[in-house]
Amino acid sequence: MGCYCHTTHIAWTDRDCFLLLQRRLIFVAEWGDRSMLATIALGAAQSPVGVALGACVGHAIATAIAVLGGAIAGKYVSEKDVSLVSGVLFLVFAAATVLSMTMG
After folding, report:
1. Does 10 share its domain with 38?
2. What sign has the CA pseudo-torsion 12, 15, 18, 21?
3. In a shared domain, residues 27 and 45
4. Which domain holds residue 8?
5. Which pLDDT does position 60 carry in this prediction?
6. Segment 17-69, tens digit of pLDDT
7. Please, what is the angle between helix 48-74 and helix 34-45, to 10°?
8. Is the dihedral of CA 27, 33, 96, 69 positive or negative?
């Protein structure tokens, strides 16, 4: 089936459409993240190479902590329990956001 780009007049396959949509959604979801904005500000004020290296090292450390923590937690907590708690917390935060928007 695919999709069609009206600006470039190119027909895309379903796979290409999916990948393009996926990248756009990730970009939009991550745009405006505070760490990204802080990195942009630091890059403008300091050495861009130093900021890029620091950001990469910081991300690698945070990812390593998350992976190790997940591996340890996985021995004691089931994936089903994590999914349940995550879903409940998501709904709680959504309700809190709605309430804060309506209450002022």
Report:
1. no
2. negative
3. no
4. 1-31
5. 94
6. 888 888 888 888 777 777 778 888 888 998 989 989 998 999 899 999 999 99
7. 150
8. positive
Asked if 19 and 54 sit in the same domain, the reply is no
Q: pTM of the predicted model, to two decimals?
A: 0.49
pLDDT at 2 over 60: no
Per-residue pLDDT band at 104 (split at 50, 70, 90):
low
Shared domain for 52 and 87, answered yes or no, is yes
For 64-87, letters b (16+ CB in 10 Å) and e give: eeeeeeeeeeeeeeeeeeeeeeee
Using DSSP's 3-state secondary structure scheme, residue 62 falls into helix
Q: What residue type is 50 in one-letter code?
A: G
Radius of gyration from C-alpha coordinates of the chain:
20
Residue 87 scores a pLDDT above 80: yes
Which 8-state DSSP code applies to residue 46? S
